[in-house]
Design brief:
DNA-binding MarR family transcriptional regulator (chains A, B), MarR/SlyA-like (chains A, B), WH-like_DNA-bd_sf (chains A, B), WH_DNA-bd_sf (chains A, B), Arc Repressor Mutant, subunit A, homodimer, DNA-binding, DNA-binding (chains A, B), 63% helix
DNA sequence: CATTTCGATAAGCATGCGCCTATCATCTAC
DNA sequence: GTAGATGATAGGCGCATGCTTATCGAAATG
Protein backbone atom coordinates (compact mmCIF):
# COMPACT_ATOMS: atom_id res chain seq x y z
CA UNK A 1 0.00 0.00 0.00
CA UNK A 2 2.42 2.63 1.20
CA UNK A 3 5.02 3.25 -1.46
CA UNK A 4 7.82 4.90 0.44
CA UNK A 5 11.18 4.33 1.99
CA UNK A 6 11.53 3.75 5.71
CA UNK A 7 11.39 6.87 7.80
CA UNK A 8 14.53 5.95 9.69
CA UNK A 9 16.41 5.38 6.44
CA UNK A 10 15.52 8.89 5.31
CA UNK A 11 15.94 10.74 8.58
CA UNK A 12 19.05 9.03 9.89
CA UNK A 13 21.47 10.41 7.28
CA UNK A 14 19.81 13.78 7.61
CA UNK A 15 20.31 13.83 11.37
CA UNK A 16 23.88 12.66 11.01
CA UNK A 17 24.58 15.55 8.66
CA UNK A 18 22.85 17.98 11.00
CA UNK A 19 24.88 16.77 13.95
CA UNK A 20 28.11 16.99 12.00
CA UNK A 21 27.25 20.56 11.02
CA UNK A 22 26.34 21.31 14.62
CA UNK A 23 29.68 20.06 15.91
CA UNK A 24 31.43 22.21 13.34
CA UNK A 25 29.38 25.25 14.38
CA UNK A 26 30.05 24.59 18.06
CA UNK A 27 33.80 24.34 17.75
CA UNK A 28 34.49 28.11 17.56
CA UNK A 29 32.43 28.53 20.73
CA UNK A 30 34.62 26.07 22.58
CA UNK A 31 31.82 23.81 23.77
CA UNK A 32 31.01 20.21 23.01
CA UNK A 33 27.74 18.70 21.89
CA UNK A 34 26.85 17.54 25.37
CA UNK A 35 27.81 20.91 26.82
CA UNK A 36 25.52 22.62 24.36
CA UNK A 37 22.68 20.26 25.12
CA UNK A 38 23.14 20.82 28.84
CA UNK A 39 23.27 24.59 28.43
CA UNK A 40 20.11 24.48 26.34
CA UNK A 41 18.30 22.40 28.95
CA UNK A 42 19.35 24.75 31.75
CA UNK A 43 18.41 27.78 29.70
CA UNK A 44 14.81 26.61 29.88
CA UNK A 45 15.01 26.62 33.67
CA UNK A 46 17.21 25.38 36.53
CA UNK A 47 17.28 21.75 37.57
CA UNK A 48 17.46 20.37 41.07
CA UNK A 49 19.49 17.19 40.53
CA UNK A 50 22.03 16.00 38.04
CA UNK A 51 20.11 12.79 37.60
CA UNK A 52 17.09 14.80 36.48
CA UNK A 53 19.23 16.73 34.04
CA UNK A 54 20.72 13.55 32.63
CA UNK A 55 17.24 12.15 32.23
CA UNK A 56 16.09 15.34 30.52
CA UNK A 57 18.90 15.37 27.98
CA UNK A 58 18.83 11.61 27.40
CA UNK A 59 22.31 10.94 28.73
CA UNK A 60 23.69 8.57 31.30
CA UNK A 61 23.99 10.32 34.66
CA UNK A 62 27.58 9.20 35.07
CA UNK A 63 28.39 10.59 31.63
CA UNK A 64 27.57 14.23 32.12
CA UNK A 65 29.67 14.75 35.25
CA UNK A 66 32.78 15.70 33.30
CA UNK A 67 30.73 18.00 31.09
CA UNK A 68 29.30 19.74 34.16
CA UNK A 69 32.79 20.04 35.64
CA UNK A 70 34.04 21.83 32.55
CA UNK A 71 30.98 24.06 32.23
CA UNK A 72 31.27 25.08 35.86
CA UNK A 73 34.98 25.72 35.53
CA UNK A 74 34.26 27.92 32.52
CA UNK A 75 31.70 29.85 34.54
CA UNK A 76 28.84 28.89 32.23
CA UNK A 77 26.79 27.11 34.91
CA UNK A 78 26.56 27.08 38.67
CA UNK A 79 26.39 23.88 40.70
CA UNK A 80 25.61 24.47 44.34
CA UNK A 81 24.43 22.09 47.03
CA UNK A 82 20.72 22.38 47.65
CA UNK A 83 20.36 24.00 51.10
CA UNK A 84 17.25 21.93 51.64
CA UNK A 85 18.89 18.61 50.70
CA UNK A 86 22.62 18.89 50.58
CA UNK A 87 22.99 15.66 48.65
CA UNK A 88 21.50 17.31 45.57
CA UNK A 89 23.16 19.97 43.42
CA UNK A 90 21.15 22.90 42.16
CA UNK A 91 22.09 23.41 38.54
CA UNK A 92 21.58 26.74 36.82
CA UNK A 93 22.93 28.53 33.80
CA UNK A 94 24.85 31.80 34.29
CA UNK A 95 24.50 34.95 32.24
CA UNK A 96 27.74 34.08 30.46
CA UNK A 97 26.38 30.61 29.78
CA UNK A 98 23.19 32.03 28.39
CA UNK A 99 25.10 34.36 26.09
CA UNK A 100 27.32 31.51 24.93
CA UNK A 101 24.34 29.30 24.29
CA UNK A 102 22.43 31.95 22.37
CA UNK A 103 25.46 32.72 20.21
CA UNK A 104 26.05 29.05 19.46
CA UNK A 105 22.39 28.48 18.70
CA UNK A 106 22.39 31.37 16.25
CA UNK A 107 25.28 29.82 14.34
CA UNK A 108 23.66 26.40 14.36
CA UNK A 109 20.34 27.66 13.11
CA UNK A 110 22.05 29.73 10.48
CA UNK A 111 23.50 26.53 9.05
CA UNK A 112 20.17 24.77 9.26
CA UNK A 113 18.52 27.60 7.39
CA UNK A 114 20.70 26.79 4.40
CA UNK A 115 19.04 23.40 4.23
CA UNK A 116 15.53 24.65 4.87
CA UNK A 117 15.95 27.45 2.36
CA UNK A 118 15.46 24.95 -0.46
CA UNK A 119 11.91 24.29 0.69
CA UNK A 120 8.75 26.12 -0.14
CA UNK A 121 7.47 28.25 2.76
CA UNK A 122 4.53 25.92 3.22
CA UNK A 123 6.64 22.80 3.29
CA UNK A 124 9.16 24.44 5.59
CA UNK A 125 6.51 25.39 8.11
CA UNK A 126 4.79 22.01 7.93
CA UNK A 127 8.05 20.14 8.34
CA UNK A 128 9.10 22.08 11.42
CA UNK A 129 5.66 21.75 12.93
CA UNK A 130 5.53 18.00 12.35
CA UNK A 131 9.08 17.48 13.56
CA UNK A 132 8.19 19.21 16.79
CA UNK A 133 5.01 17.22 17.16
CA UNK A 134 6.64 13.87 16.53
CA UNK A 135 9.61 14.69 18.78
CA UNK A 136 7.20 15.42 21.60
CA UNK A 137 5.24 12.24 20.87
CA UNK A 138 8.19 9.92 21.28
CA UNK A 139 10.06 11.78 24.00
CA UNK A 140 7.93 11.84 27.11
CA UNK B 1 14.17 36.12 14.44
CA UNK B 2 13.63 32.39 14.14
CA UNK B 3 11.86 31.18 17.24
CA UNK B 4 12.37 27.45 17.18
CA UNK B 5 14.43 24.66 18.66
CA UNK B 6 17.35 23.21 16.78
CA UNK B 7 16.45 20.76 14.09
CA UNK B 8 18.89 18.18 15.37
CA UNK B 9 17.50 18.45 18.88
CA UNK B 10 14.03 17.67 17.56
CA UNK B 11 14.92 15.00 15.06
CA UNK B 12 17.56 13.10 16.99
CA UNK B 13 15.24 11.67 19.65
CA UNK B 14 12.73 10.90 16.94
CA UNK B 15 15.29 8.96 14.93
CA UNK B 16 16.51 7.14 18.00
CA UNK B 17 12.97 6.03 18.73
CA UNK B 18 12.46 4.99 15.10
CA UNK B 19 15.65 2.95 15.12
CA UNK B 20 14.76 1.28 18.39
CA UNK B 21 11.37 0.36 16.95
CA UNK B 22 13.05 -0.89 13.79
CA UNK B 23 15.39 -3.15 15.72
CA UNK B 24 12.42 -4.54 17.60
CA UNK B 25 10.53 -5.13 14.34
CA UNK B 26 13.56 -6.78 12.76
CA UNK B 27 14.18 -9.27 15.53
CA UNK B 28 11.43 -11.74 14.57
CA UNK B 29 12.85 -11.77 11.05
CA UNK B 30 16.25 -12.80 12.36
CA UNK B 31 18.22 -10.03 10.68
CA UNK B 32 20.21 -7.15 12.08
CA UNK B 33 19.99 -3.48 11.23
CA UNK B 34 22.99 -3.65 8.94
CA UNK B 35 21.64 -6.78 7.29
CA UNK B 36 18.37 -5.03 6.61
CA UNK B 37 20.13 -1.98 5.22
CA UNK B 38 22.25 -4.17 2.97
CA UNK B 39 19.24 -6.16 1.77
CA UNK B 40 17.40 -2.93 1.03
CA UNK B 41 20.32 -1.55 -0.96
CA UNK B 42 20.64 -4.76 -2.97
CA UNK B 43 16.91 -4.89 -3.53
CA UNK B 44 17.28 -1.71 -5.57
CA UNK B 45 19.80 -3.42 -7.83
CA UNK B 46 22.94 -5.55 -7.66
CA UNK B 47 26.31 -4.05 -6.77
CA UNK B 48 29.64 -4.88 -8.29
CA UNK B 49 31.96 -4.37 -5.32
CA UNK B 50 31.65 -4.53 -1.57
CA UNK B 51 33.37 -1.19 -1.26
CA UNK B 52 30.63 0.37 -3.38
CA UNK B 53 27.98 -1.25 -1.22
CA UNK B 54 29.63 -0.01 1.96
CA UNK B 55 29.78 3.46 0.49
CA UNK B 56 26.14 3.27 -0.52
CA UNK B 57 24.92 2.26 2.92
CA UNK B 58 27.26 4.58 4.77
CA UNK B 59 29.22 1.86 6.51
CA UNK B 60 32.89 1.07 6.79
CA UNK B 61 33.88 -1.49 4.16
CA UNK B 62 35.59 -3.67 6.76
CA UNK B 63 32.45 -3.59 8.90
CA UNK B 64 29.98 -5.18 6.54
CA UNK B 65 32.03 -8.28 5.76
CA UNK B 66 30.59 -10.24 8.67
CA UNK B 67 27.11 -9.09 7.75
CA UNK B 68 27.61 -10.28 4.18
CA UNK B 69 28.97 -13.59 5.46
CA UNK B 70 25.83 -14.20 7.48
CA UNK B 71 23.48 -13.05 4.74
CA UNK B 72 25.18 -15.32 2.24
CA UNK B 73 25.13 -18.24 4.65
CA UNK B 74 21.41 -17.66 5.16
CA UNK B 75 20.87 -17.70 1.40
CA UNK B 76 19.56 -14.14 1.33
CA UNK B 77 22.27 -12.79 -0.95
CA UNK B 78 24.75 -14.17 -3.46
CA UNK B 79 28.40 -13.13 -3.50
CA UNK B 80 30.24 -14.42 -6.52
CA UNK B 81 33.55 -13.38 -8.01
CA UNK B 82 33.11 -11.14 -11.00
CA UNK B 83 34.15 -13.20 -14.04
CA UNK B 84 35.53 -10.04 -15.59
CA UNK B 85 37.57 -9.01 -12.55
CA UNK B 86 37.98 -11.82 -10.09
CA UNK B 87 39.08 -9.49 -7.32
CA UNK B 88 35.59 -8.02 -7.12
CA UNK B 89 32.50 -9.78 -5.75
CA UNK B 90 29.19 -9.41 -7.51
CA UNK B 91 26.57 -8.86 -4.83
CA UNK B 92 22.93 -9.59 -5.47
CA UNK B 93 19.84 -10.30 -3.42
CA UNK B 94 18.13 -13.67 -3.79
CA UNK B 95 14.41 -14.28 -4.02
CA UNK B 96 14.44 -15.44 -0.42
CA UNK B 97 16.28 -12.27 0.52
CA UNK B 98 13.78 -10.15 -1.31
CA UNK B 99 10.88 -11.84 0.46
CA UNK B 100 12.59 -11.41 3.82
CA UNK B 101 13.25 -7.77 3.16
CA UNK B 102 9.73 -7.04 1.99
CA UNK B 103 8.25 -8.76 5.04
CA UNK B 104 10.54 -6.88 7.40
CA UNK B 105 9.82 -3.59 5.68
CA UNK B 106 6.09 -4.16 6.02
CA UNK B 107 6.47 -4.61 9.77
CA UNK B 108 8.69 -1.57 10.10
CA UNK B 109 6.39 0.68 8.16
CA UNK B 110 3.42 -0.62 10.08
CA UNK B 111 5.06 0.67 13.26
CA UNK B 112 5.91 3.97 11.63
CA UNK B 113 2.33 4.42 10.54
CA UNK B 114 1.29 4.51 14.18
CA UNK B 115 3.36 7.65 14.58
CA UNK B 116 2.27 9.23 11.32
CA UNK B 117 -1.35 8.44 12.02
CA UNK B 118 -1.49 11.32 14.49
CA UNK B 119 -0.84 13.79 11.67
CA UNK B 120 -3.26 15.43 9.34
CA UNK B 121 -3.11 14.00 5.79
CA UNK B 122 -1.61 17.23 4.52
CA UNK B 123 1.07 17.36 7.18
CA UNK B 124 1.83 13.69 6.73
CA UNK B 125 2.38 14.08 3.01
CA UNK B 126 4.41 17.25 3.40
CA UNK B 127 6.60 15.72 6.08
CA UNK B 128 7.40 12.62 4.06
CA UNK B 129 8.08 14.69 0.97
CA UNK B 130 10.40 17.07 2.80
CA UNK B 131 12.18 14.25 4.62
CA UNK B 132 12.89 12.62 1.29
CA UNK B 133 14.06 15.89 -0.24
CA UNK B 134 16.37 16.78 2.62
CA UNK B 135 17.74 13.24 2.86
CA UNK B 136 18.66 13.44 -0.80
CA UNK B 137 20.18 16.88 -0.35
CA UNK B 138 22.65 15.83 2.31
CA UNK B 139 23.41 12.36 1.10
CA UNK B 140 25.13 12.61 -2.28
C1' DC C 1 20.67 6.15 67.44
C1' DA C 2 20.93 2.55 63.80
C1' DT C 3 19.55 1.11 59.46
C1' DT C 4 18.28 2.10 55.10
C1' DT C 5 17.77 5.07 51.20
C1' DC C 6 19.42 8.47 47.98
C1' DG C 7 22.51 11.65 45.15
C1' DA C 8 27.02 12.34 43.31
C1' DT C 9 31.22 10.49 41.87
C1' DA C 10 34.76 7.23 40.28
C1' DA C 11 36.02 3.10 38.11
C1' DG C 12 35.48 -1.05 35.44
C1' DC C 13 33.65 -3.77 31.61
C1' DA C 14 31.52 -4.88 27.16
C1' DT C 15 29.94 -3.12 22.78
C1' DG C 16 29.96 -0.93 18.41
C1' DC C 17 32.12 1.85 15.41
C1' DG C 18 35.65 4.58 12.52
C1' DC C 19 40.23 4.35 11.04
C1' DC C 20 44.55 2.51 9.89
C1' DT C 21 47.73 -1.27 8.55
C1' DA C 22 49.01 -5.71 6.68
C1' DT C 23 48.24 -9.56 3.66
C1' DC C 24 46.91 -11.96 -0.33
C1' DA C 25 45.00 -12.31 -4.88
C1' DT C 26 44.30 -10.17 -9.08
C1' DC C 27 44.43 -6.77 -12.59
C1' DT C 28 46.71 -2.87 -15.28
C1' DA C 29 50.55 -0.30 -17.22
C1' DC C 30 54.85 -0.01 -18.78
C1' DG D 1 57.44 -9.89 -17.20
C1' DT D 2 57.76 -6.60 -13.58
C1' DA D 3 55.96 -2.86 -10.83
C1' DG D 4 52.24 -0.60 -9.12
C1' DA D 5 47.29 -0.21 -8.27
C1' DT D 6 42.98 -2.34 -6.65
C1' DG D 7 39.65 -5.42 -3.98
C1' DA D 8 38.64 -8.41 -0.12
C1' DT D 9 39.76 -9.77 4.34
C1' DA D 10 41.68 -9.83 9.11
C1' DG D 11 43.39 -7.56 13.06
C1' DG D 12 44.36 -3.99 16.09
C1' DC D 13 43.84 0.79 18.20
C1' DG D 14 41.11 4.38 20.09
C1' DC D 15 36.91 6.64 21.23
C1' DA D 16 32.23 7.16 22.82
C1' DT D 17 28.65 4.99 25.02
C1' DG D 18 25.51 2.00 28.09
C1' DC D 19 25.55 -0.62 32.12
C1' DT D 20 27.20 -2.04 36.62
C1' DT D 21 29.44 -1.72 40.98
C1' DA D 22 31.64 0.63 44.94
C1' DT D 23 32.26 4.55 47.85
C1' DC D 24 30.96 8.46 50.51
C1' DG D 25 28.27 12.01 52.44
C1' DA D 26 23.68 13.23 53.70
C1' DA D 27 18.67 12.23 54.60
C1' DA D 28 14.97 9.71 56.01
C1' DT D 29 12.95 6.00 58.61
C1' DG D 30 12.24 3.03 62.31
Amino acid sequence: MTERRDLAAMLHPLVKALIAAEIRALEPHGISMWAYVVLSALDDGPVRTQAALAEAVGADKTRIIGTLDRLQEAGLITREPDPGDRRARLLAITDAGRRRRRAAQADIQEGEELLLATLSPGDRAAFLRVAETLANNVGP
